[in-house]
Amino acid sequence: MPGAEPDVVDLLLSHHQQIKLLFSQLDAAQGDHKQQLFADLVSLLAVHESVEELVVHPLAQDKLPDGDTVVPDRLAEEQDAKQVLARLHEMGVADPAFDAELLELRDAVSAHAKAEEQLEFLRLREVTDPATLRRLAAAARAAAALSPTQPHPEVPPTATANLFLGAPIAVFDRVRDALSDAMSAGAKETP
Ligand SMILES: [Fe+2]
Ligand SMILES: [Fe+2]
Prior knowledge:
By secondary structure, the chain is mostly helical. It is built from 7 helices and no strands. The longest helix has 33 residues, at 31-63. The two termini are 26 Å apart. The structure holds fe (ii) ion (2 copies). One fe (ii) ion (FE2) binds at residues 49, 52, 74, 78, 112, 116. One fe (ii) ion is lined by residues 12, 16, 48, 52, 113, 116.
């Protein structure tokens, strides 16, 4: 319903825009600022992909007639992106090969996002009750609340800052586990 509160698809689409913006900011950045932007990119991708992995891909697999082929392809692209992030992290932003590899990642992530939008998100709206999609936005908000770059009044920053430290693959795993815990706690509170 136009004008209604955002659903999970709205929030994931807005993540896609933020991810695109971070890639373009990284393109122009140097030194410590570039390092910080790369850490922000890892955090945002960890939050975003966790919501997709725990909420939206399972829903697409269940609801879309071709979910069994669409979803595994997206999961494979997410695994590939994680491996590239890990390589970039090991290289460091000052490595002469960093920028070329980052541009390849940007193109891969952009193609991945486009495929999600066309083959999953917009089609999910056709086959899923709007109230369900709005209710699932709570998972995306819980994930965003974990992020150190999006402080949330109910979550002290020190409680979640450690989630985002270290190598990207460990960050992704910790964020996914934290979101999964937050979702089960939320489910217990809502009978
Ligand atoms: Fe994704
Ligand atoms: Fe996505």
